[in-house]
Amino acid sequence: MTTLEQPLVKAVGAKAAKKLAALDLETAGDLLRHYPRRYAQRGELTDLDSLAEGEYVTVLAEVQKVQGRKISKRPGNLLEVTVTDGRGLLTLTFFGKGAYVPERELPPGTHGLFAGKVTFFGSGRNAKRQLVHPEYKPLAGGDLAGAAREFAEELIPVYPAAKGVTSWQIADCVRILLDTAELGDDALPEHVRRRHRLIGLADAYRGIHRPRDMAEAGRARKRLKWDEAFVLQTALAQRRRAAAELAATPRPPAAEGLLAAFDERLPFELTEGQRAVGDEIAADLARTHPMHRLLQGDVGAGKTVVGLRAMLQVVDSGGQAALLAPTEVLAQQHHRSIVAMLGPLAQAGQLGGAEHATRVALLTGSQGAKARREALLDAASGAAGIVVGTHALLQEHVQFADLGLVVIDEQHRFGVEQRDALREKATGGRPHVLVMTATPIPRTVAMTVYGDLDTSALTQLPAGRSPIATHVVPSANRAYWNRAWERIREEAAQGRQAYVVCPRIGDEEAPAPEDVPEEDGEDARRPPLAVLDVAPKLSEGPLHGLRIDVLHGRMHPDEKDAVMRRFAAGELDVLVATTVIEVGVDVPNATVMVVMDADRFGVSQLHQLRGRVGRGRHAGLCLLVTDAVEESKARERLDAVASTLDGFALSRIDLEQRREGDVLGESQSGRRSSLRLLTLLRDEEIIKEARAEATTLVEDDPELRGHPALAAELAALVDEERAEYLEKT
Ligand code: ADP
Ligand code: MG
């Protein structure tokens, strides 16, 4: 018997195992969980017109015509086999001495499977699709005598294949496993299976790989999706339970102190949402178990104030709070705005410092030695009630006197492990953790990615916020394009400011690949516009006479900070920048944003970017400049951004266009392999039910003593994650 952990060499032989390794399949279990992408129906031919250039395809088609030719300058023959789905045609090209083999094996009328990479030859309307030297497998007709046994079924599984290994070779190997593999105990408890009418594991594997009909394949998929959801939700339930058992120092609100003094000073009324979430957090902080809360709120919803008020409560009770930002620019800005908001309340030990005052320290990766030493000392001595920083805060040697709360801004850049690393920093009990994110996440995704957190949301924007108008500007249209720069001049004339965002910095030899989202298959595009090219062109051309400067990630942090300060102080009219301004940069006087090559950005990213304007009294304007043609996919995405300000709707569009691995984020990529069938956006029902079942199960049996098979799956999942984490550090 073959166990699922067994390497494929043993299970299916060295030759096949070597081929399967090209698909990252190493063990018998890997192969069993390499599921068909779809099923070809016997007699139902593949729609050949749907084949896209460059795609690696497996098609079911009928041979229409076979034509051999002798080519003069080459040895041997050229064989062209034309196959059809009844309408469209596909040319299979074979050359060389061996071309007589397909000639013999593929007489007209043969139905067969053909696999290879789609290329086009010829041009315009006459362009023909072809597969050069495809792999093929003739299928027997109605009479099955002599037919390959594996194609006796009605449905033919089509696997994600790769060069060198065909769908039917994979099918052959899977067949061996289905006959020989020992699946072990079912990890899904019987009562769960019964309650949700799920089929057994062996039936599910057989049903997904070799279904007799689509209904059977459907039952198999449902069952296997459940496995994925359930194991993950059990892991999260255990995490939540473990967290709930940890001790934390309670940090109850004080009747008077910093927080009360701060609220007195606030120049605006808190929104109802800010108040409600604030109460939730205040109550969490007073508990003897650590808070783990996710605060969602669209760009500009006012999360910072909520986070700051939580920090002040902790300082009031004698503890410290750390605020983590994803970039230095943001850390600096948070530091600056917190100091400004607190005023005398942040001036402990200084002349003019208020009664309950504390200090706010800034710690970043690249600050000067002296500033850094001071900040480290303030953190370690407890003199700084609030420490603001970037990932640098995670480094081992940063010590806190009494870390009571960690606030993480813009969570999508932080992973689970980093959250854990920070929690370890607290002495005597875990700190409370508040994660703030401006990328609204659909509920099921939140349940999975942030499944170990409680969630709250700020759903309204503060009153008096001006609307942002967004327009797509085709760069081919000079009139529109000029109008964009005119608008900036008009705003500047009124004393307001503008951003011009470019996808690239421009000091690099070649565009950094991560700056250019791969999509639409347009490889040979020009490099995206760059900050360092665009800025001088604007200041010499359409924006001549305005005060322009640049901001990008490769500037020295001090320089970045200086530019941001000048922009915030109104000493610059236009900031030409990369996405360093994407998150959190807050200059209420900025009213226009022009995004160059807007199609090179993701949907959520554009939404984040546009949140930088219209933050003050004046209406915001966002212009998305693009050369993407109308009705292209890229253009559709931009139109979507222009059509709504609902970050939630946009994040859905964004997520739908990405692979799940990306949804889960880098740190969870280890889970990618555990989510094959389950899609976070579409399988809401299963995820919800699995979460409920998993929670109950973990409550009744926290150690999973009664569920050894499930415990083993979880251990494998955790191992995988740990391995990933170690690799990265
Ligand atoms: P985000 O949720 O994007 O982090 P911020 O916390 O940066 O939003 O808030 C955006 C702006 O709104 C800031 O200038 C902040 O001072 C202001 N603000 C926050 N809460 C309110 C409120 N209740 N009323 C008016 N302005 C507010
Ligand atoms: Mg913010």
Kindly describe this structure.
- The structure is a single chain.
- Helix 7 (201-209) packs across helix 8 (214-245).
- The protein is built from 25 helices and 23 strands.
- The radius of gyration is 30 Å and the shape is globular.
- The chain is an alpha/beta fold and 729 residues long.
- The longest helix has 32 residues, at 214-245.
- Residues 142-152, 513-523, 659-673 and 725-729 have low confidence and may be disordered.
- The strands form 5 sheets. A 7-stranded parallel beta sheet has the order 13-14-12-15-16-11-17, with helices on both faces.
- It binds adenosine-5'-diphosphate and magnesium ion.
State the share of residues found in helices, binned by percent.
25-40%
Task: Give a count of the beta strands, DSSP E runs of length 2 or more.
Answer: 23
Bulk shape: globular
Ligands bound to this protein structure:
adenosine-5'-diphosphate, magnesium ion
Number of helix segments? 25
